[in-house]
Amino acid sequence: MARKIAIITGGSRGLGANVALKLAARGTDLIITYKQDSASASSVVAQVVALGAKAVALQLDAGSIAGIPSFAEAVSSTLSLWGAERFDILVNNAGMGIHAVFGDVTEEQFDALMNVHLKSVFFLTQALVPLMADGGCILNVSSGLARFALPGYSVYASMKGAIEVLTKYLAKELGARGISVNVLAPGAIETDFGGGRVRDDKQINAFIASQTALGRVGLPDDIGNIIAALVSDDCKWVTAQRIEASGGMFI
User: Fold this and answer.
1) Which residues contact 104 (CB under 8 A, 6 or more apart)?
2) How far is CA 197 from its chain centroid?
3) Is there a domain that residue 250 lies in?
4) What is the pTM of this model?
5) Are 160 and 242 in contact, with CB atoms under 8 Å apart?
6) What pLDDT, in 10s, does the model give residues 110-151?
7) Which residues are catalytic?
């Protein structure tokens, strides 16, 4: 049986890198993307190879919609390294954080978050679906902030809310090909996202832990394991669903 191939955007660091390693450990080969840090991407590729899987890192600026067609061409060419024409799993994970209260948000900040978190997910998925195998799986990454509200995240959370709606439409329109589409909403996780505020600010970390049913802030492994499970064949009958992985944050 042929090994599955997964594409993970933003797979060179943080949650994306963790997901790549979890999938590699389960026997899945990887195409990961990076924006600028080719060294980190190469490190993840090396770790994937050490786990017995194949991996290739491709450059992708998720905020540049104009670059999507050439990226899709690069994916098509890269698949030939496997002797394949199709890939099986797409994890739309690439992201960025801007913390600004509503009254201070600029149009530039709004557009930057929209391009990375919504527009690029829409058009990148559109460009890659023709290269996806029937029976494949798409997993979009949202945020617990689409359910609960914290000052400073109005734009980011709005884009994630839109992704949750888009997920349902993709599931409906791609279902005829047997492609499942779900969205995972992590709570606060200790990574470098947003400058590492949750990880490095002890006061913020302690507050979140106090408001979380399981009593701590999430770790990358908490999310990587869940995503690996959701894109596996064990979850093929799950589609159009929002799954929150927050440890019971703000319930």
Assistant:
1) none
2) 19
3) no
4) 0.96
5) no
6) 999 999 999 999 999 999 999 999 999 999 999 999 999 999
7) 156
Full residue range of the structural domain in which residue 185 is found: 5-245
Residue with tokens 């067609």: 69
Residue 14 lies in a domain: yes
119 phi, psi to nearest 5 deg: -60, -45
Residue 27 within any structural domain of the chain? yes
Report the C-alpha gap between 96 and 122 in whole angstroms.
16
Nearest to 227 by CA among 53, 69, 22, 27: 22
Q: How far is CA 97 from CA 41, 149, 153, 191, in A?
A: 20, 15, 9, 12
Cα dihedral 202/205/209/211 (nearest 10): 110
| Nearest CA-CA partner of 177 in 88, 241, 243 | 88
- The verdict on residue 147 lying in a domain is yes
Percent of the chain with pLDDT over 90: 93
CATH classification of the domain holding 214: 3.40.50.720
CA distance 191 to 251: 23
Q: Specify whether the CB–CB gap between 33 and 58 falls below 8 A.
A: yes
